[in-house]
Amino acid sequence: MTGPFKDARKTTYLNSEGSNRPLVSPIPGDVLNAARGYRLGRLRDQIARHDVAGLLLYDPVNIRYAFDVSNMQVWTAHNPMRYALILAGGPAILFEFKGCEHLAQGLPGIDEVRTAITYMFMSRGDQIRGFVEDWADEIADLVRSHGGGNMRLAADKLDINAPPALAARGIALVDGAELAETARAIKSPEELRLMRWTIRVCEAGMARIYEHSLPGVTEQELWAHLHFENARSGGDWLETKLLTAGPNTNPWYKECSHRPVEAGEMISFDTDMIGPYGYCADLSRSWVCGYEPMNQTQRRLYRTALDQIEHNLALIAPGRDFAEFNEKSWRIPEKHIDYRYSLALHGVGMADEWPVVPLHVDWTNRAMAGRFEPGMVLCVESLIAEKGTESIKLETQVLITETGAERLDSFPWEDV
Questions:
Q1: How many CB atoms lie within 10 A of CB 392?
Q2: Distances (CA, A) of 124 to 9, 130, 163
Q3: CA–CA gap between residue 346 and residue 356 (Å, rounded)
Q4: Which among 46, 57, 323, 71 is positioned nearest to 185, based on CA atoms?
C-alpha cells in the first residue's frame, strides 16, 4: 500500500456519544464500595501478618488505596501534609489537611477524621521542632491505646524529623512500603472493573492522539489530547510526558516538546495515566505521522518490538517465578542492547507497582524474588531502536488469571 491511509480500527475507541462529550462511567456504587472494603481488608491482613500495631501512610496513592479519599494528591506527594493511620484491631483514622476534613464524608472505611499536624519547613519554618513533638505525641498515644503493648509501627515514608521523635517515645519503625505494595498486588474483581474503565478512557485518549497525528502538530499538542480525555472523564493525572516523534524518540525518555512532527516520522508514547477511580492505564504505542505506511526500517523495528511483547506475554502464568520467566524470556538482539528498556515487565494498579522484573541483560543475583499470582496485573514492555533510528515503544497491560494471562487493553497494534 502506498500513500496516506487511516486505520479505522483506532477511531472506534473515540467516545461514541461524540467528541464533545466526556465518557461517563457505568460502574455502580456497590462495585466501588466493594473495592474499597477489599483494599482496606488487604492492608489489615498485612498489618496482622507483619505483627505491627498499625500502618502509617503518607504516600497519597497508598492513602487513596486505603480510604479512596482524593485530595491534592500530586501536591501532597511532595508536601507531606496529610496522612492515614490504620491500627491493628482498632480504628482507621484519616488525618486530613486543615479545612478539607469534609472530603472524607460518607466514605465507609474511615472510622475517624482528625486534622493533620504538619511539620514540614515550608509550613512551619523555625517552629518545626514543636510541631514534630505534637505529631509524635499523638501517633504514640494512638499506638499505645490500640496496640495491646505492641510498639512496632509500619510506615511507608516519613520526613527526616519523624523517626527520631517516634523512637524517643518507644516506637520501633518497620518499612511499611512492603506491606502496602504486597497488599496492592492482588486485585479483586471489583478493582478490575475500575481498572478496565480507566483503560477505556485511556484508549479514547489514544484515539484522540491518533486523530490529530498530522504533519505540523507539536508533540505537546498531541500529549494534551490524552490529558484532555482523562481530565474530562474524571481521571487524575499523567505521571510522565513521554510522547516524542522522529529523532526525539532515540534515545528514549525525552519529554514531549514544542517540536512540530513531520509526515512519515514515528510517534511513540507511554501513557502512564492515573485515570478515573485512581487506577493506572500504562500503555505504549507507536505509529507514523500523517497516516503514511511505515518505511522498511520502521517496519523491521516494529516487528521486533512486537515479537518481544508476544513472546514474553506467552510466558506469564500463575505460579511461574520471576527467575524462570527471565530464563525463558525473549533475548534482545545485540544491535538493540544499548537502546533497550531496562525491564521486561512491572506491576500496575493505582500506579506502577511491585514487582519489577528486569530485562535479561540487566538480570543479576540481586534481582527480586517472587512469582506470578492470579489477580496480579502486569505491564509487558518493549523498546526497540538501534544507532541512528527512531525508537518503537510498545506496552500492554495484562491480568494474571488462574490459567494464564488476559490482556486488558485492546487498542490495536500496527499491521506489520
A1: 31
A2: 55, 9, 18
A3: 4
A4: 46
User: pLDDT tens digit string along 348-400?
Assistant: 999 999 999 999 999 999 999 999 999 999 999 999 999 999 999 999 999 99
- CA atoms lying within 13 Å on the CB side of residue 292: 16
Nearest CA-CA partner of 243 in 211, 274, 213, 216: 213
For residue 304, give Cα distances in angstroms to 313, 317, 392, 414.
14, 23, 9, 12
Residue 411 is given by DSSP the state P
Strand order from edge to edge, sheet including 273-274: 237-238, 273-274, 280-281
CA distances from 58 to 43, 208, 385 (A): 14, 35, 39
Residues in contact with 343: Cβ distance below 8 Å, sequence separation at least 6, in sequence order: 356, 357, 358, 359, 362, 381
DSSP 317-372: -TT-BHHHHHHHSPPPPHHHHTT--SEEEEEESSSEEEEEEE-GGG--TTSPP-B-
* CB-based contact 239:250 (threshold 8 Å): no
Of 414, 409, 377, the closest CA to residue 13 belongs to 409
Is residue 222 a contact partner of residue 213, using CB atoms and an 8 Å limit? yes
Q: Pick the closest to residue 84 from 67, 100, 99 (CA basis).
A: 67
Cα separation, 202 vs 143, in Å, equals 42
Q: For residue 1, is pLDDT > 70? A: no
- Round the average pLDDT of the chain to a whole number and report it: 96
* For the chain, percent of residues with pLDDT exceeding 70: 99
Composition of the chain by helix, strand, coil, percent to 5: 40, 20, 40
User: What is the DSSP code (8-state) at residue 157?
Assistant: -
Burial 183-207 (b: 16+ CB within 10 A, else e): bbbbbbebbbbbbbbbbbbbbbbbb
Sign of CA dihedral 330, 241, 195, 212: negative
User: How many other C-beta atoms can be found within 10 angstroms of the C-beta atom of residue 343?
Assistant: 16
CA 39 to chain centre: 16
